[in-house]
Amino acid sequence: MPAPHRIDTHHHILPTGYMEAEGDRIIGVSPRFAEQLRAWSPTRAVEEMDRGGIASSVASISAPGVWFGDAAKARRLARICNDYAARMAGDHKGRFGVFAALPLPDVDGSLAEIEHACGALGADGFGLLTNFGGMWPGDPRVAPVFDELNRRKAVVYFHPTAPDCCVNLLPGVPAPLVEFAFDTTRAIVSLLFSGTLARCPDIRFIFSHGGGTLPMLAGRIAAVAANLPQATQYPGGIMPEFKKLYYDVVSVFDPVGFTAVQQLAGVSHMLFGSDYPYWDTEANVSALGRQTLSTADRQAIERDNALALFPRLAR
Question: Which of 257, 174, 243, 256 is nearest to 213 (CA)?
Answer without folding.
Answer: 257
